[in-house]
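Q: I have 136 residues here and want to know how they pack in 3D. Can you give me a structure?
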Amino acid sequence: MEPAEFEAAGLYDPTSPDAKERLALLKWLSDRGFTAVEIAEADADPGLPLEALASQQAVRRGQVHSRRESAVLLGLSDTALERMLLASGYPSGDRDEATLTDMDISALSSFVSASEIFGEEPIEQFARVISAAAAK
């Protein structure tokens, strides 16, 4: 993207004291596949510094799946997947919105395998403990 495009999206002010650094960051993010919409959404989130968007690059590799598609990939019902996601600390979401990465699917498949051995309820409880510990 060009500076004028960033400016039109409300992401860049060439008169700002940090304009040079800001433009470098915006170009870097754009070069790595982030869209102006994704950058603007991250920029609007006061809890997420724009620089933190770059850390998401590692988990963005591969495809992004909807919850409905993920349930099929994992061999779960939509309801079972939703329970597992909530237990794992994922927020509720639209079943048709693509939000789960290949990395998410891989992690969830471990829980699915474990639930075949130990049962769904114990694994959901385990997922809650792991999620709570990770949140601290």
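Q: Anything worth noting?
A: Strands lie at 64-66, 98-101. The chain has two domains: 3-60, 64-135.
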